Amino acid sequence: MRIDVITIFPEYLEPLGVSLLGKAQERGLLQVHVHDLREWTTDAHRTVDDTPYGGGPGMVMKPEPWGRALDTVAPPDAVPQPRLIVPTPSGRLFTQEVAIELAKEPWLVFACGRYEGIDRRVIEEAGTRMRVDELSIGDYVLAGGEVAVLVIVEAVGRLLPGVLGNADSVADDSFAPGPMANLLEGPVYTKPANWRGREVPPILLSGHHAQIARWRRDQALRRTAERRPDLIERLDPALLDEHDRAL
Ligand SMILES: Nc1cc(-c2ccc3cc[nH]c3c2)n[nH]1
Predict the structure, then answer these.
(1) Which of 133, 165, 197 finishes a domain?
(2) Among residues 116, 168, 172, 226, which one is catalytic?
(3) Hey, whose CA ends up nearest to atom 2 of ligand 1?
(4) Spans of the chain, pLDDT less than 50
(5) So what's the pLDDT on residue 128?
(6) Which structural domain range is residue 239 located in?
(7) Ligand 1 close to Cβ of residue 89 (< 6 A)
(8) Are residues 108 and 158 in the same domain?
């Protein structure tokens, strides 16, 4: 997968070169190219923003630099065209399902807004030649799109074949299809068996793998019911057995 990110704060995206995603890049599983939007400004002050038409607080990102940047990063004659992802508080909610969908794409371009956002005509014009997804990572307001890009790229990148080692299979994700689908992760433990007088649940030391799997599912169901009852509503009843329903 190729990823291009256009931003006025390229340094914000340096974490994409660290750890899991950094190694994925070294292994050629992922190519990440970060571009400074100011490269496409034409004035001495490298201006990317201006006052909003209609008045109001703050500034809006000018369309011209964005137009030139997108023409360079995603040339109109490129085949295939990339998918353009624009983080915004008013976008479609980014979920694991969306991450799985994006992980199938060969080329993603991210547009990081700042200030009050990007002039609407940039998104409209880009939409005439590529698929544009405006995505929210949650109902809170950030100061720009860069952190959202870090979240989206990490969630998508870890799904790419070969990125996670076998030991960390995505198949065990709490939102992956299967018996733990749409359940929150339950508690996890490692050595020592007794830490500051706190014992690891004995079932986990029993070696009874079927009982351990049952216990883990019970823990996940209980935690989900306590913390995210909305996810319980969405569970496929066919996946719940009488033991589950008795919890
Ligand atoms: N989920 C979420 C996205 C954002 C976001 C995304 C882009 C910009 C540009 C200026 N402020 C922004 C905020 N906040 N919260």
Answers:
(1) 165
(2) 116
(3) 89
(4) none
(5) 98
(6) 174-246
(7) yes
(8) yes
Helices (DSSP H) in 30-180: which residue ranges? Answer: 63-73, 96-102, 120-126, 146-157
Q: Ligand 1 in contact with 114 (CB < 6 A)?
A: yes
241 in catalytic set: no
pLDDT the model gives residue 3: 98
- Beta carbon of 151 within 6 Å of any ligand 1 atom: no
Is 245 noted as a catalytic residue in this protein? Answer: no
Q: Which two tokens stand for residue 85?
A: 């992802």
**128 and 188 inside one domain:** no
CB 94 within 8 Å of CB 119: no
- Distance of alpha carbon 37 from alpha carbon 87, whole angstroms: 16
pTM given for the model:
0.94
Residue finishing a domain among 109, 142, 165 = 165
Report the number of distinct structural domains present in the chain.
Answer: 2
Q: By the 8 A CB rule, do 133 and 162 touch? A: no
Q: What pLDDT sits at residue 181?
A: 77
Write the CATH number for 130: 3.40.1280.10
pLDDT in tens, 209-246: 999 999 999 999 999 999 999 999 888 888 888 888 88
